[in-house]
Amino acid sequence: MTELADLEARANAARRRTGEEGLVVCDNLVRVYRTDKVEVQALQGLDLVVGEGECVALVGASGSGKSTLLSILSGLDLPTAGRAKVAGHDLLSMGRRERLGYRRNTVGFVWQQTGRNLLPYLTALENVALPMKYARVPRRERAARAAELLGVLGVAYCRDRRPAELSGGEQQRIAVAVASANAPRVLLADEPTGELDTASGEEVFAALRRANEELGATVLVVTHDPLVSGQVRRTVRIRDGRTSTETLREQGGAGEEFTVLDRAGRLQLPRDYVERYGLRGRVRLTEEPDHIGVWGEGPDSSPAGP
Ligand SMILES: Nc1ncnc2c1ncn2[C@@H]1O[C@H](COP(=O)(O)OP(=O)(O)OP(=O)(O)O)[C@@H](O)[C@H]1O
């Protein structure tokens, strides 16, 4: 191996170890909100790596920090500490200009409230063309790409209608087109099906999937909708501002749940295990040839038996 190739191989190995191979990398991310009297720790050291091309569902109880994470990834909010990198942009240190370019070209965003995604006085086509105007795409190209996007997302028939003349589901599918206008590497969606009935929700999720599969965007979608989380390969659960478990499922499969091991080697045991085995305070670890055993402290649960 040449010296250069050797250096590259070592650099790649180091990158793999630190998880830098992901398009989205969050490392020990902390976000503390401070108001007059209270301090809320919305993110408490969250780790997450998402590879290019993935479609990931983020789930978790209300208040667990999902929207906070999405605001940070969209470049709208700043973390208090930790590291967040998206497509090579360091979200903590980037300046005003880079942030503007990042929000315009690298990420696209779909909000839950349909009214927040589209301008009411523009037609669907004009709404989709608008982000391209900001990115200085020539007029003719804007109209052609906007029409193409509406076609790919199954809402070509809506092109000349204004939001008030569209159903909630149609508005959200057009919002996916708006968010995809400048071919973002990452598409973020915060409960995009939350205000919709099941059938419309399914159509909106299908549009997100098309943005992922056909337009090549990496998709992160916050959802309470089991229909959505049941259809993606990877579901990440956030608990108390940290990633706690992940479910990976092969196409059409039931899915297997994993617990997330963070960089420091910490893992959170599922609550039912903790209760079932009476684990509290300290636990004993035993090393087996192919696994690690976790034992309670009491005499009955010692590895050697009573
Ligand atoms: N601007 C803010 N100021 C103060 N506290 C905030 C602010 N935004 C969020 N929080 C708090 O941070 C915590 C995480 O909120 P976040 O909205 O990220 O949760 P979530 O998982 O998205 O919840 P939901 O599913 O209800 O949208 C909550 O305790 C919330 O009250």
Automatic annotation (TrEMBL):
<dbReference type="InterPro" id="IPR017871">
    <property type="entry name" value="ABC_transporter-like_CS"/>
</dbReference>
<dbReference type="Pfam" id="PF00005">
    <property type="entry name" value="ABC_tran"/>
</dbReference>
<keyword id="KW-0067">ATP-binding</keyword>
<keyword id="KW-0813">Transport</keyword>
<feature type="domain" description="ABC transporter">
    <location>
        <begin position="24"/>
        <end position="265"/>
    </location>
</feature>
<dbReference type="InterPro" id="IPR015854">
    <property type="entry name" value="ABC_transpr_LolD-like"/>
</dbReference>
<dbReference type="InterPro" id="IPR027417">
    <property type="entry name" value="P-loop_NTPase"/>
</dbReference>
<dbReference type="GO" id="GO:0005524">
    <property type="term" value="F:ATP binding"/>
</dbReference>
<dbReference type="InterPro" id="IPR003593">
    <property type="entry name" value="AAA+_ATPase"/>
</dbReference>
<protein>
    <submittedName>
        <fullName>ABC transporter ATP-binding protein</fullName>
    </submittedName>
</protein>
<dbReference type="InterPro" id="IPR003439">
    <property type="entry name" value="ABC_transporter-like_ATP-bd"/>
</dbReference>
<keyword id="KW-0547">Nucleotide-binding</keyword>
<dbReference type="InterPro" id="IPR017911">
    <property type="entry name" value="MacB-like_ATP-bd"/>
</dbReference>
